[in-house]
Amino acid sequence: QVQLVESGGGLVQAGGSLRLSCAASGSILSINAMGWHRQAPGKQRELVANAISGGSTNYADSVKGRFTISRDNAKNTVYLQMNSLKPEDTAVYYCNAQGRLWPLGSTFDSWGQGTQVTVSS
Questions:
Q1: Contact 82, 19 (CB under 8 A)
Q2: How far is residue 83's CA from residue 56's CA, in Å, rounded to a whole number?
Q3: Which label site among 3, 9, 48, 96 has the fewest CB atoms less than 10 Å from its CB?
Q4: Residues facing 108 on adjacent strands
Q5: Whole-Å CA distances, 36 to 77, 105, 108
Q6: Digit-coded pLDDT (tens) for 41-86
Q7: Is 17 exposed, middle or buried (0-12, 13-18, 19+ CB in 10 A)?
């Protein structure tokens, strides 16, 4: 089992910044990808950004140039620095991690509980 604990959400004015953190723990052999998705009321969950082992990153077009994802592999932690926030960034943000479990190497795909980000205009 892999547990993901998120922190850093909150209420911020438009143009402000927030930093989300997500730490993974449990029987982890390796993590291939960690990232963030979000779901706004009445909308489907969408990928915001992810970071793949080896260093590659992916971003939704709507956040490119404003959000930065980073990983601390030693701590099994992923961060999302969100700058120039807009009201349309308001959503519940979910951490996701995919990898392999110790000791047999079976795959896992785990989600955090979600953290609310609210951007006021």
A1: yes
A2: 21
A3: 3
A4: 99
A5: 12, 24, 16
A6: 999 999 999 999 988 999 999 999 999 999 999 999 999 999 999 9
A7: exposed
